[in-house]
Amino acid sequence: MSAILDLDQIACSGNGVEHDIETPHGVLHVTMRGVPKGNRPVILTYHDIGLNHKSCFNTLFNYEDMQEITQHFAVVHVDAPGQQEGAPPFPSSYRYPTMDELAEMLPSVMTQLKVNSVIGIGVGAGAYILSRFALNNPTLVEGLVLINVDPCAEGWIDWAASKLSGWTSDLVDIVMSHHFSTDELSDNQELIQTYRLHIAQDINQDNLALFCGSYQYRRDLEIERPIVGLNEDTVNTLTCPALLVVGDTAPAVEAVVECNSRLNPTKTTLLKMADCGGLPQVVQPGKLAEAFKYFVQGMGYIPYVLLSHLSNESVPTAGMTRLARSRTTSSSSITSMDSSRSRNNLNSFLEGSATGALDSQTGPQTMEVSC
After folding, report:
1. Is pTM beyond 0.85 here?
2. pLDDT tens track for 288-306
3. Are 244 and 149 in contact (CB under 8 A)?
């Protein structure tokens, strides 16, 4: 476990070009690695409250097998306003953007960086923001990996405070209870201490409070599971493929299951990670990297790489192929032999270490497994 806990080492690894981008709702700090490659989407990340893009994602993106995938894509890491390293405090008159406004800032990022489409990876608040962005701009988002996503409007702060009996309910404690279960808070002291210090010392506390307040008062995503053959073209829901991820002991389990129940089952996979809490991208980067590999392949992008630690499946080495597919064709019909096979590969990977079983009810069902 200690290998993933040195945030100073994590923060120093990897290079990127930093940009401060003007948007309709203020300046957004982003870091870009690589350049857009042809018509491939860019991977765009958005972190959770109490974190920035480095503490949230660098463990995953520095993992060797994830790097073998991302060498074929440019990556854009977004820091929410005021959450990046060394961010100055906002003036007292500053009004922090709402969750909807944070989502509305992302098209400006894409325009400035000449990005045509994205595969989003978001955690917690970042997953909500990317979901809202995809609902508003479906043609810009080709796929979403949503970790600990909560589609509901009710704030978690009052709930969190009620769980902190005997604690001093300051901002750091509340954010910690958002990330970690009660068992994690008491049992995994090394991980907890590392992130407690990061949240308390590396993130401007006034700026953090503003971001937390914006997340607390978010609107419901107002998404609804479509009925195949009846209203899938008119109902408000995500139209892109989605991989929902949650640790089986994370505080967000119920929220993620609720989100899953509102999404198109033919385009959605729910991955529950066994023996994993609130930061699966930190604690289980290898497992998440392989799930992401098959997710991207299922979208029609085939990375011709052999993941050194994870898979014995070798594929050609001539770069990456964009498979012909229709964005408007129902996912219930097979549009690509390779895409179908890749979803089966994801299925097989998850089943191979599963502690649960696939849903076998009649009718279209989300692929729902534990691994």
Report:
1. no
2. 999 999 999 888 885 444 4
3. yes
